[in-house]
Amino acid sequence: CSSVKPGACPVTVPAETQRWCVIHGTPPSADSWVKLTLRGGRLGVITGDSFVPLHLTPSSLPVPQGFEDNLVCGECLARNQEKESLLQKESSDQERQCWCVTHGHLLTTSKWTHLSLCHGRAGLYNDTFVPLHLTPSSLSVPQGFDDNLICGECLDRNQEKESRLLKESFNPDEGCSMGNSKSSMSAFQSRNKSGRFQPREDPVYARKVDELLGQLAMGKVDSQKVLQPIRPAVVHSPMAKQESSPIAIAQRQATKSK
């Protein structure tokens, strides 16, 4: 069969048929064979449900009489598939000029992502739907350019903001509590006194005062209620134990020695 009919392309050839590979130009010994087909005026093979153009150059040798024409052996089919995959990768990595809706001007880059609409929100799909946190430009897309595209830089910025918002939603008070605890500890440590007869401070009372000051700074407590309370917000510490003077201690020691 020397003619190639569009759409008529059996994947295998009966075993009793003599086979001639149009790429090798020889009758190689192969376990699998595929018949060439035409689609849209292009020569190729069908693998699965997809049409793959033929990227290999056929041999100039004529098919001998008694051999079936328009066959490709399994080795050439694998080489053709590798070349198709390489061409697809090169086309995806190729830089192209598009209009970024967040930048509001033309950019030339290889990474572009289409915006999607989900539940009334604009966003993009990266395994899951991620809302668009960046503000689109007010400039309209020029004629002849695709709409609703963002560049790779804006995609990374949007993903960073999404990660930050998720972290803040899980730990809303983490930053404030850590800052308050550090300031309270530093303030408490700065009150350490040296010397035996220095006035002592109640650490529990000091911690309560620090917490109250922190709440005042964040606006969690009304200042009027603290400054003029009906009931004090912090109960004052009891009177510290009176320390004896150095003279009294010396007199007691002298009495004991006698």
Identify the overall geometry. elongated
Q: Give the end-to-end Cα distance, rounded to a whole number of Å.
A: 134 Å
Strand order of the largest sheet: 1-6-2
* Helix fraction bin: 25-40%
In the residues, how many domains can be counted?
3
Number of strands: 13
> How many H/I helices?
6
**What is the succession of H and E elements?**
EEEEEEHEEEEEEEHHHHH
Radius of gyration: 41 Å
Structural class: alpha+beta
The residue ranges in which pLDDT falls below 50 over 5 or more consecutive positions are 1-15
What's the pLDDT, averaged over the residues?
A: 75
Your description of this structure?
This protein is α+β, with helices and mostly antiparallel strands. The chain has 3 domains: 19-92, no CATH class; 96-170, no CATH class; 190-257, no CATH class. It has helices at 74-93, 152-170, 174-190, 203-217, 223-227, 246-257; strands at residues 19-21, 33-35, 37-39, 42-47, 50-53, 68-73, 96-100, 105-109, 112-114, 116-118, 121-126, 128-131, 149-151. It has a 3-stranded mixed beta sheet with strand order 1-6-2. A 3-stranded antiparallel beta sheet has the order 3-4-5, covered by helices on one side. A 3-stranded antiparallel beta sheet has the order 10-11-12, covered by helices on one side. The longest helix has 20 residues, at 74-93. Residues 1-15 have low confidence and may be disordered.
